[in-house]
Design brief:
The protein is mainly beta and 88 residues long. The chain has one domain. It has no helices and 6 strands. The chain has strands at residues 5-9, 15-19, 29-35, 44-49, 67-71, 77-80. β1 and β2 form a beta hairpin.
Length: 88
């Protein structure tokens, strides 16, 4: 199964693959911006996506609203959802 993921550098030339939360993957992810949004010294990620230019027989990928993934400093992220996105 395919999934969107990030690669975490352990500093010794090796990378750990970490899948993004399922709700972040409801639509295509076309851009990821790394930035320390909460000023804690740990990079956070902003994702954006959707794709309308599909083939006529393929539906648009338009379920994404973007997400903010707050880095925890240990390779894990906490997903900060938009106030317009119902929590489940």
């Amino acid at each position: 199964m395919f999934s969107s993921c990030i690669l975490l550098n352990n500093g010794a030339g090796q990378f750990k693959v970490q899948e993004l939360p399922v709700r972040v993957q409801l639509s295509t992810i076309n851009a990821v911006i790394p930035k320390d949004l909460d000023n804690d010294g740990v990079l956070d990620l902003v994702t954006a996506g959707n794709m309308y230019g599909t083939e006529p027989e393929t539906a648009r990928y338009d379920a994404g609203i973007g997400a903010i993934l707050l880095g925890q400093g240990d390779g894990n992220v906490h997903t900060q959802w938009s106030p317009f996105c119902p929590q489940t």
